[in-house]
Amino acid sequence: MIPSFALKRKLQSAKEIEEIVSSMKAFANFNVQTAKKGLSNLRIYQNSIEDSFGEIITLFPYLIKEKLSETKKTIFVVFMSQEGLCGFFNEDILNFFEKIPQGNSITIIIGTKGAEVARSRKISCSRYLNGASNVEAIEINAIELSSYLIEIFEKEHFSNLNLIYAELEAGSYNIVEKKVLPPDFSKFHKQPIQEKPLLYLQAEDILHALIKEYLHTSIYRAFIESVASENQARLNAMVQASNAIKEREKLLMQELNVHRQQEITDELLDIVNAYRSIIK
């Protein structure tokens, strides 16, 4: 039989682990809520860019005549977790990615822990880059990734740029694939404008600037959605761990109470037996 002091140590260890899990749960929840606030503002800004696309291509439809690329080569940017302890988050994203026809393409994986999982599954990747573990770290990473993608997209003559990431959705996440370059201009057309506005820049320059900003905001959106989803997955994992620890504490407490009762009974029996020996 395990002595009560050993059970007390186990119970104390369980309580200490529960405190750590509670702290991690609170931190993950903070990151999720912060990301949600950022997402609402970002969606408004993205809508403004898309409205500007609609206006410029309605005024100058010749700008979006499709240019035939010599090669149909795609860049896939896969956003995964930067930190650990987020359950099957990375596995879910890689399972989604592996179902996509990839053909002539290169893959860039974002996120340190995600990269480890991808390597273990022997997924071909051209480059691994650091991700962001919180909203504050996104801005620099998004700028660096945008610049890098524009450079290789133009220099190496890629025809498509697709982002794969998890979108936050009602206490969980949904993995999506979004084509960013070239933009799908068919979604942005507007009704013909009666009076043409006075432009101080060439229409081509305006469109090029809009495409660069569209790329940057799309990457920023992918980062912030990924951070929110990663932390939501971690929060869910911590909630499950917390419930398991509480159940463990309950069982230990029950076992400890049984042992205490048994020890008290044994002590009483020893006293009774000793007394009987004395009075004989």
Q: Mind explaining what this structure looks like?
A:
This protein is of the alpha/beta class. It has helices at residues 4-59, 89-98, 112-120, 138-155, 203-279, and strands at residues 74-79, 105-110, 127-129, 160-169, 172-181. A five-stranded mixed beta sheet has the order 3-2-1-4-5. The longest helix has 77 residues, at 203-279. The radius of gyration is 29 Å and the shape is elongated.
List the helices and strands and how they pair.
Blueprint: H1 4-59, E1 74-79, H2 89-98, E2 105-110, H3 112-120, E3 127-129, H4 138-155, E4 160-169, E5 172-181, H5 203-279
Parallel strand pairs: 1-2, 1-4, 2-3
Antiparallel strand pairs: 4-5
Which short descriptors sum up this protein?
alpha/beta, 5-stranded mixed beta sheet, about 280 residues
Q: Helix fraction?
A: 55-70%
Number of strands: 5
Integer average pLDDT: 85
Order of helices and strands: HEHEHEHEEH
Strand content: 5-15%
